């Protein structure tokens, strides 16, 4: 999970939700990524979760700055959004497996169940959404190019959201997946083959070659689309994780007094509002 002052409120809510629903919260260990040391952020994390076992690693933004292409939303262009691609390099060699989570999630189930997912021979596991229109994640220039459009031959590619992933870090390193993703980012610099941030190059490398996970582990899109962030309802079916992917973030909508109905599911984990109300009382 990333550690960013702008998203700290979301990170704190996510951590609280994970601990609250864990059978053994004392066994939960966390790794956070940030781009610079922020003493206040670190202090708040330690004081809020004094018994949480965690480490913080710095992501060198120079590693990716020259590879980032402008996308449809500025937030997607931030270097920290690409840190997930470099986990194999950032984390120590003894880290063999991890769950990567975005900061705008709330866990409502035991994270140990997600940890126990069998990746089989795959490097990554995540919920797949094969009903989604996969072609829209890439530009017309991509699909009209006879060579590029053959990228997915031999695969049955489906969209997956990279905000919730179980990753075999050892396989990631050995398979040189960081370089494979970077290669597509270089192509994007030469040709406009997609419009989003770090998602499309990961799809180009991995779509159709991941271990699918039950959809309950990523009730995504609760932040609406990437342009307006309009309200969306819950998808049918059981829920283990709520994800406010998209432009709209629950803490901002709650503060603006214009929340979506799903934002009230995030509110019970909002430590900022809890502390504010306690102070006012």
Automatic annotation (TrEMBL):
Localization: Endomembrane system
Q: How does it sit in the membrane?
A: Single-pass type II membrane protein
Swiss-Prot/TrEMBL keywords: Glycoprotein, Glycosyltransferase, Membrane, Signal-anchor, Transferase, Transmembrane, Transmembrane helix
Q: In which pathway does it act?
A: Glycan metabolism; pectin biosynthesis
Task: Report the enzyme's class at the first EC level.
Answer: transferase
Q: What EC number(s) does this enzyme carry?
A: 2.4.1.-
Gene Ontology MF term list: glycosyltransferase activity
Sorted alphabetically, the Gene Ontology cellular component annotations on this record are: Golgi apparatus
Protein's UniProt keywords contain Nucleotide-binding? no
Q: What InterPro entries does this protein map onto?
A: Glyco_trans_8, Glycosyltrans_8_dom-fam, Nucleotide-diphossugar_trans
The record's section on Pfam families has: Glyco_transf_8 (PF01501)
Family membership: Belongs to the glycosyltransferase 8 family.
Q: What is this protein called?
A: Hexosyltransferase
């Amino acid at each position: 999970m990333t550690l960013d002052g702008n998203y700290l409120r979301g990170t704190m809510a996510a951590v609280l939700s994970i601990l609250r629903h864990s059978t053994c919260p004392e066994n939960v260990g966390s790794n956070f990524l940030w781009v610079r040391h922020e003493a206040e952020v670190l202090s708040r994390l330690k004081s809020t979760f004094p018994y949480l076992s965690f480490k913080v690693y710095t992501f060198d933004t120079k590693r990716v700055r020259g590879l980032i292409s402008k996308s449809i939303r500025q937030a997607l262009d931030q270097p920290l959004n690409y840190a997930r691609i470099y986990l194999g390099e950032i984390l120590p060699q003894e880290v063999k497996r991890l769950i990567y989570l975005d900061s705008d999630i709330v866990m409502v189930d035991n994270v140990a169940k997600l940890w126990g997912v069998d990746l089989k021979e795959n490097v990554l596991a995540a919920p797949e959404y094969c009903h989604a229109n996969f072609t829209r994640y890439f530009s017309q220039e991509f699909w009209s190019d006879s060579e590029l459009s053959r990228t997915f031959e031999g695969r049955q590619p489906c969209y997956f959201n990279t905000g919730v992933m179980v990753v075999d870090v050892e396989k990631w390193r050995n398979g040189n997946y960081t370089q494979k993703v970077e290669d597509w980012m270089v192509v994007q610099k030469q040709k406009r083959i997609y419009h989003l941030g770090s998602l499309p190059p990961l799809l180009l490398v991995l779509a159709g070659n991941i271990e699918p996970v039950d959809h309950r582990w990523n009730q995504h899109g609760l932040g609406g689309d990437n342009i307006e962030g309009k309200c969306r309802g819950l998808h049918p079916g059981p829920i283990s994780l709520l994800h406010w992917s998209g432009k709209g973030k629950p803490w901002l909508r709650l503060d603006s007094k214009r929340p979506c109905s799903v934002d009230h599911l995030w509110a019970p984990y909002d430590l900022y509002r809890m502390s504010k109300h306690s102070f006012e009382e």
